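Archive maintenance. Older records in this collection stored only the sequence; we are now back-filling the structure field for every entry so that each record is complete. The fields below show one back-filled record exactly as it appears after the update. Entries are processed alphabetically, and Mitochondrial nucleoid factor 1 is next in the queue.

ARCHIVE ENTRY
Title: Mitochondrial nucleoid factor 1
Organism field: Oncorhynchus kisutch
Length field: 131
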Amino acid sequence: MSATRYRRFLKLCEEWPRDESKKGRDLGTFLRQRVALAFREGENTQLSDPEKCDQMYDSLARINTNIYRERFPRTRDTSFTGVTVEECRMLLATGSMQQMDEEKKGLWKTLTERFSTKPEDVTPEKVPENK
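Back-filled structure field:
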């Protein structure tokens, strides 16, 4: 039975999209990593809690097939903020998140980090001795 579960999760991983704009934060990549950890021995993995594994699979499969989106259709393609899905994707992209983190630091901290020198980068100058 473990082999069947493993194959179901593999198929789910194949179908689950990856979002390259969310490096290190992508749910599809995270899912693949978790499946690899849970099934370290592939089809031969002995699961400690098969029922919990089945529940997890069923939940992820519902998300992947957009069952709730179909069951509860939205009247608009925006949220209460008026932001569209595409605008939200752009805002949540890794590059945008890093830029927002930079802006949160404040101008002074950003400038001091950018222009400060590290001790290993500084070469001591020869100071002329007074005789």
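Update note: Residues 50-64 form the longest helix (15 residues). The chain has seven helices and no strands.
Entry marked complete.
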